[in-house]
Amino acid sequence: MYDSALADTIASMTATQWFRRRADLEWRHPDGFESWQWEWTPGQTIGTQQLPVELHTHAVYLFAEYESAGAHRAKVPPFRSIELELGATQFQARPVR
Question: What letters, b where the CB count within 10 A reaches 16 and e where it falls short, cover 10-35?
Fold first, then answer.
């Protein structure tokens, strides 16, 4: 997230809103953020993923698409490793020490 005002907008979105509006946000803010997409299932073990985070990054958000109610969103530190644990109805993202 390179645009701090856009970061505030995205911070208030639920995962449902994010997935519905992502294409429009990309079109309206072509230099405001980058997004990546993976499809994983609860219990699946995934190796390390490296994101090319730019030095001027204001925020990093993770969204997970669940059928259960909830925001399913996490703000994570842009320059630290995290551990992501996907559960059946929610997820946790924790910085690695």
Answer: beebebbebeeebeebeeebeebbee
Which H or E run contains 75?
Answer: strand 73-76
The neighbouring-strand residues paired with 96 are none
Name 86's Cβ contacts closer than 8 Å, sequence gap at least 6: 40, 41, 42, 43, 44, 64
Strand 82-86 with 73-76, pairing:
unpaired
What residues make up the domain containing 70?
4-95
Number of residues that make up the chain: 97
What pTM was estimated for this model as a whole?
Answer: 0.84
Within 8 A by CB and 6+ apart from 28, the residues are none
Residue 10 clears pLDDT 80, i.e. is over it: yes
Decide if pLDDT at 78 tops 60: yes
Condensed to tens digits (0 to 9), the pLDDT of residues 46-74 reads 888 888 878 888 788 999 999 988 999 99
Number of domains in the chain: 1
